[in-house]
């Protein structure tokens, strides 16, 4: 039964749209960081490339800037660039930054069953944390590039 859930892309531990948008925006900035000189991207360029609603992107980029992951440059050639190298930014760091501190799980009296359920959930969470800690923005960028090279190009 559980293989059916996996094959149907069942998302037990789903990330929020905000995390997804942050990852997409940072991935877009990372793709421009690979050049010798990082070219600043405007919000509208990121929005156009990644289909992120501009009102969310504005909030996300402000949070990322305050956290030191992106820098903003003013002026006619301004925009946003990564503040650190992509290999220095883990996906866990991004998720924790965007999601904020998680509240403790249910503080109701702990029955045996509740304790068992909490232990299973903590194990699943620990595995997720390990995966996100290992992966960096650079890894995501490299996977993107590999897939782009294998996907067919259609020209008109």
UniProtKB/TrEMBL annotation:
Any one GO molecular-function label of the UniProt entry: DNA-binding transcription factor activity
Superkingdom of origin: Bacteria
Assigned keywords, A-Z: DNA-binding
GO CC annotations, alphabetized: cytosol
InterPro entries: TR_Rrf2-type_CS (IPR030489), Tscrpt_reg_Rrf2 (IPR000944), WH-like_DNA-bd_sf (IPR036388), WH_DNA-bd_sf (IPR036390)
Entry keyword annotation includes Lipid metabolism: no
Matching NCBIfam families: rrf2_super (TIGR00738)
Protein name: Rrf2 family transcriptional regulator
Origin species: Iningainema tapete BLCC-T55
